[in-house]
Specification:
Blueprint: H1 2-23, H2 50-58, H3 96-107, H4 115-130, H5 135-147, H6 159-174
Helix pairs in contact: 3-6, 4-5, 4-6, 5-6
């Protein structure tokens, strides 16, 4: 009876060990190299060198450096943007209503980093007003948008106050 139990335990342990070893197999799914944007094929023929020939003749192991492909391509890198690609904001495209809204924001103490950010927030407020959204619903999203502006400084004013200024200013000057 003890021999049977020992055999069963041995078989179970053997199956478990086989399963664990199979799970730890050589099917590695991690990347082993950095992908490149260019597609190159390399062909390197293994040519015997004098070091390998002499090592074979003398019976001593060769101490060659690992072979490197003859046609190794460097990976492509993105080119930097030209300095003239970043242009100052073009205010000539702003309507009188846009300018009035931006001036009212500035007078209330809110200076967005770009007019696009402020106009997007103003447009959102006007759409919310047209859809009969409550001020509380608007406040949640407008405050988040105002707080995500790179020029917003929470040390100067709380984000909720900036959100309220956007909502009140948009209702007074932009949503007409």
């Amino acid at each position: 009876m003890h021999r049977t139990r020992g055999k069963v335990i041995g078989v179970v342990v053997g199956i478990a060990a086989t399963g664990l070893l199979a799970a730890c197999g050589n099917n590695d799914s991690t990347a082993s190299s950095t992908p490149t944007l260019s597609h190159t094929t390399t062909t390197a023929a293994a040519a015997p060198t004098s070091a390998s020939t002499s090592a074979a003749e003398t019976g001593q192991p060769s101490q060659q450096a690992p072979e490197t492909p003859a046609d190794t391509a460097t990976p492509e890198r993105p080119q930097p943007l030209p300095t003239n690609a970043i242009t100052p904001e073009d205010t000539s495209k702003l309507t009188d209503k846009d300018k009035k809204f931006l001036d009212a924001l500035k007078a209330a103490g809110v200076t967005p980093s770009t007019s696009d950010i402020a106009l997007s927030i103003g447009t959102y407020v006007c759409q919310g007003v047209a859809a009969n959204a409550s001020d509380q619903d608007l406040m949640t999203f407008v405050s988040a948008m105002a707080g995500s502006d790179p020029s917003f400084d929470p040390a100067k004013m709380p984000v909720e106050k900036a959100g309220k200024i956007y909502i009140d200013t948009a209702k007074a000057t932009y949503c007409q």
